[in-house]
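Appendix C: a fully annotated inverse folding record. The material below is reproduced so that readers can follow the format used throughout the book. The structure is listed first as tokens, followed by the designed sequence.
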């Protein structure tokens, strides 16, 4: 798992899932690229279809402890640390090295 799925509540008290606004590698803004989001069995999977076409690691896996809300929106702020740490780990791997 990459982290926890976060939520906010709208003015009527209904939950809204907050999805990462960038792909897992930080290369694509999901609001401008095609993506797919599925919540099933306590796990949210958000796939960047541009990264999937490049055979890259394209799927965020976020744990959810509540039922999937009816609405979702993209959030740049909520997952910025996950994207940053993912990008730094990618750049830390040298030629011929493999990330663990």
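Designed amino acids, in order:
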């Amino acid at each position: 798992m990459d982290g926890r799925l976060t939520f906010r509540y709208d003015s009527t008290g209904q939950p809204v899932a907050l999805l990462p606004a960038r792909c897992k590698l930080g290369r694509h803004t999901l609001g401008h690229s095609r993506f797919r989001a599925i919540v099933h069995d306590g796990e949210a999977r958000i796939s960047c279809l541009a990264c999937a076409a490049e055979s890259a690691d394209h799927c965020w896996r976020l744990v959810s402890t509540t039922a999937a809300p009816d609405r979702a929106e993209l959030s740049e702020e909520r997952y910025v640390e996950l994207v940053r740490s993912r990008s730094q780990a990618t750049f830390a791997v040298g030629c011929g090295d493999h990330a663990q």
